[in-house]
Amino acid sequence: MRNRFGLDKGHVQQVNVRSGWLQNARGAMRTGFPKARPGMRVGLLGGSFDPAHEGHAHITRQALRRFGLDRVWWLVSPGNPLKAHGPAPMAQRLAAAEAVMHHPRVVITDIESRIGTRHTAATLARLMALYPGVRFVWLMGADNLTGFHRWENWEWILDNVPVGILARPGQGVAAQRSRAAIAYARYRLRAAQARCLPMRHPPAWCFVNMPMVDLSSSDIRARGGW
Ligand SMILES: Nc1ncnc2c1ncn2[C@@H]1O[C@H](COP(=O)(O)OP(=O)(O)OP(=O)(O)O)[C@@H](O)[C@H]1O
Ligand SMILES: O=C(O)c1ccc[n+]([C@@H]2O[C@H](COP(=O)([O-])O)[C@@H](O)[C@H]2O)c1
C-alpha cells in the first residue's frame, strides 16, 4: 500500500535527519518530517489535540525546561485507538495546534499519519528506527498514566523509552496508584532528577509537579468552542 508520498510502507528505510529527506528503496523524496540530529533530546507529546489548548502549550514549556529537552514534537494523532469517536479532520487540528503553540523548539507534526501508525508503541519503534541516535522521551499528562496499562504493548513502551509525566488537575493520586506506576515503581526518578531523564537507559520515568492549567479539549467541545 502506498501513502500520499507514493512510498510503499515496507520500503521506508531512514530519514536523513539533517535534511528531512525520507530515504526509501527507490531513492529519496522530500517530506515534511521533522529534523533531528543524533544526540538531540526530543520529547514526544502525542495527542488528539481536538482541539489544542493552553494546557498543552503549558505542559510543553514545562517539559522543555524540566526534562532539559532540545525539542518537543506534538504528534497530532490520526485517532486515539481507545476512543470510540474519531477526532476532527487532521488539517483542522493541525491549524488549531499551530495557532495555540508558538515556540522555536516545538514542532507540530502529523508524522503518525505519514508513517501509518496509531498505537504509541508502534510509533515509537518506527521513530527510533527512522532517527537513530535521537534520544526520545514520551510525554503525557497524569491522566494517561492512570489508564496506561490498557495501551497496546505498554510495558514495551516503558522498557524502551524514558517517560515524562506532567501533573494534571485532579489526576495525581489515581496516576500514582495506577498499575503502570506500581509495576515500574523502582524505575521512577525523583523530580529533582528530571533533567537526567532523556539520558537514562529505560525503564525510567519521572512525574513532575508544577503549576497546573485546568483546561481540556472535551470541555472546549462541550462548550461548543470547536
Ligand atoms: N491541562 C492539561 N494538563 C496536563 N496535561 C494535559 C492537559 N491537557 C492535555 N494534557 C495531556 O496532553 C496530551 C494530549 O491530550 P489531549 O489531546 O487528549 O487533550 P485533552 O484535553 O486531554 O482531551 P480530551 O478532553 O478530549 O480527552 C495527553 O497526554 C494529556 O494527558
Ligand atoms: O497505543 C495505545 O494503545 C494508545 C492508547 C491510548 C492513547 N494513546 C496515545 O496517547 C496519546 C494521547 O491520546 P489522547 O487522545 O488522550 O490525546 C495519543 O498519542 C494516543 O495515540 C495510545
From TrEMBL:
Superkingdom classification of source: Bacteria
Its EC number(s): 2.7.7.18
Pfam families given in the database record: CTP_transf_like
Residue span(s) of domain Cytidyltransferase-like: 44-223
Function statement: Catalyzes the reversible adenylation of nicotinate mononucleotide (NaMN) to nicotinic acid adenine dinucleotide (NaAD).
GO MF annotation, one: ATP binding
Top EC class for this record: transferase
GO biological process: NAD+ biosynthetic process
Keyword terms, alphabetized: ATP-binding, NAD, Nucleotide-binding, Nucleotidyltransferase, Pyridine nucleotide biosynthesis, Transferase
Catalytic activity: nicotinate beta-D-ribonucleotide + ATP + H(+) = deamido-NAD(+) + diphosphate
Matches recorded under NCBIfam families: nicotinate (nicotinamide) nucleotide adenylyltransferase (TIGR00482), PRK00071.2-2 (NF000843)
Recorded family membership: Belongs to the NadD family.
Pathway note: Cofactor biosynthesis; NAD(+) biosynthesis; deamido-NAD(+) from nicotinate D-ribonucleotide: step 1/1
PANTHER family in the record: NICOTINATE-NUCLEOTIDE ADENYLYLTRANSFERASE-RELATED (PTHR39321), PHOSPHOPANTETHEINE ADENYLYLTRANSFERASE (PTHR39321:SF3)
Name of the protein in question: Probable nicotinate-nucleotide adenylyltransferase
